[in-house]
C-alpha cells in the first residue's frame, strides 16, 4: 500500500474505523475493538481504495479521454495524467495518491466547524491526522492527453486502450535531442514542459524513427 500513501488518517475515515470512533458514549470501546479489525484489513483497504479512485474519476468526469474499451479503467490509461496545482509536479495513477500536496492540511478556524455529527468527525480526523488523501478535485488539473498519446503511438501501442502498466512493461527507452535517455513517462513530462517540439528516437533500435511532439 506504500504506492498509495495509505496511512492512519486514511484508515480513520473508513466506515469500519468510523463506526468504532463514532460509537455512543456508553458503548464499550477498547483496544480489542480495533484489534478485531485486523482480520478485515484487506477489505477495509479495498473499500478505501475504491472510494479514492472514485474521487479521481470525478476529476476526470468532464474529460473526453475515457477509454473506448469498457474493460480498461480510464485511471489506468497511459494517456491519463495529472498536474498538482500547488507544485506543478506531473503525476500518474496510482502514484498520485501518495503525492504530498494531495494530503489534507489541518482544518481552518474553530468557528467554521460543521455542526453535523459526521462533519464534526471528519473535522476531528483532519485536525488529528492531517495527512489524509482529500479533495483531489481542488488540487489537481487533468493534463491534455495529446503528448502522451503521441508517445504511446510512437511506441507502437494503441492510446485508446494502452495502460501505464502496459507501457512500463515494454521497458522502452527514448532519446531526446540525441543526448538524454528517458522512459516514456519522462518523455511525456519533458515534452509537456518544453516550449519547442521535442524529437524522440527509439533507443538501441536499428529503426531510427523520430516523432515531433
What is the secondary structure topology, with strand pairs?
Elements: H1 8-12, H2 15-21, H3 31-35, H4 41-60, E1 82-84, E2 90-91, H5 117-128, E3 140-142, H6 146-154, H7 164-170, E4 174-176, E5 180-182, H8 184-193, E6 199-202, E7 210-212
Antiparallel strand pairs: 1-2, 1-3, 4-5, 4-6, 6-7
Helix pairs in contact: 6-8
Task: Describe the protein in words.
With 213 residues, the protein is α+β, with helices and mostly antiparallel strands. The chain has 2 domains: 2-142, no CATH class; 146-212, no CATH class. Helices cover 35% and strands 10% of the residues. The protein is built from 8 helices and 7 strands. The chain has helices at 8-12, 15-21, 31-35, 41-60, 117-128, 146-154, 164-170, 184-193, and strands spanning 82-84, 90-91, 140-142, 174-176, 180-182, 199-202, 210-212. The chain has a 4-stranded antiparallel sheet with strand order 5-4-6-7. The chain has a 3-stranded antiparallel sheet with strand order 2-1-3, with no helix packed on it. Strand 4 and strand 5 form a beta hairpin. The radius of gyration is 21 Å and the shape is elongated. It starts with 7 loop residues before the first helix and ends with a strand. The model is unreliable at 108-117 (pLDDT under 50).
Total count of helical runs of at least 4 residues: 8
Assign an overall shape.
elongated
Quickly count the domains: 2
N-to-C span: 35 Å
Radius of gyration: 21 Å
In helices, the fraction of residues equals 25-40%
Mean pLDDT: 79
Number of strands: 7
What oligomeric state do these chains adopt?
Answer: single chain
Unreliable residue stretches: 108-117
Which percent band covers the strand fraction?
A: 5-15%
- Main β-sheet description: 4 strands, antiparallel
Spatial sequence of strands, sheet with the most strands: 5-4-6-7
Helix and strand pattern: HHHHEEHEHHEEHEE
